[in-house]
């Protein structure tokens, strides 16, 4: 999952607060408050048994669920917020990886009964870390509750790549050059035509 570091918004404390308000609204079943926090085109990814899709059922009104999301911890770095919880009665451990953009949640990844390790690459800043227990913070986060499930659970790694604007421009530029060389009949001439614009590209991104 690639993220432009410029989308970090108002800071990790603000982003963590957005997610905390969402859980409060979910447990109150406050639909208007939930709609204000979630983007209408929310991107959703789920890993776990289909019977554990409590959040989807709750938001879509498919059925009245008694499941409550009570986070054991909420950790934030940049626009990414990680929440972890455990339902004792059901022996279910869960992790949510939220993406907050300008105060609105635009992406969520759900993991149920999964041992999750999060790796972070790119523009890592110690000040952008909040509540992450790894001594290598902010590069690694690991879920701490799957052991409570009482059985072995699968392990997954979530890689978060944060790119600044100049690096995004460079990747795009290299892609265009590769496209010109491999696809266009006059690939070499296209490359030489593009090269003079490299300095201007980086000057505009500074």
Automatic annotation (TrEMBL):
Organism for this UniProt entry: Sesamum calycinum
Keywords, ordered alphabetically: Membrane, Transmembrane, Transmembrane helix
Entry-linked InterPro entries: NTF2-like_dom_sf (IPR032710), Wun1-like (IPR009798)
Protein name per UniProt: Wound-induced protein 1
Domain of life assignment: Eukaryota
Positions of transmembrane segments: 167-188
SUPFAM superfamilies named in the record: NTF2-like (SSF54427)
């Amino acid at each position: 999952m690639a993220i432009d570091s410029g989308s970090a918004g108002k800071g990790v404390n603000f982003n963590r607060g957005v997610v905390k308000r969402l859980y409060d609204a979910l447990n109150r079943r406050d639909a208007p408050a939930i709609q204000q926090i979630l983007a209408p085109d929310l991107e959703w990814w789920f890993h776990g048994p289909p019977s554990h899709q409590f959040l989807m059922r709750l938001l879509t009104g498919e059925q009245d669920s008694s499941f409550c999301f009570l986070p054991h911890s909420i950790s934030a770095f940049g626009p990414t917020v990680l929440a972890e919880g455990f339902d004792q009665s059901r022996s279910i451990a869960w992790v949510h990886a939220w993406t907050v953009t300008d105060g609105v949640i635009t992406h969520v990844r759900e993991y149920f009964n999964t041992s999750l390790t999060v790796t972070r690459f790119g523009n890592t800043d110690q000040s952008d870390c909040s509540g992450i227990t790894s001594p290598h913070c902010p590069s690694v986060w690991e879920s701490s509750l799957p052991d409570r499930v009482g059985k072995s659970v699968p392990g997954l790694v979530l890689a978060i790549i944060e790119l600044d604007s100049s690096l995004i421009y460079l990747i795009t530029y290299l892609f265009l050059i590769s496209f010109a060389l491999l696809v266009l009949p006059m690939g070499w001439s296209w490359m030489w035509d593009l090269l003079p614009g490299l300095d201007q590209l980086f000057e505009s991104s500074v």
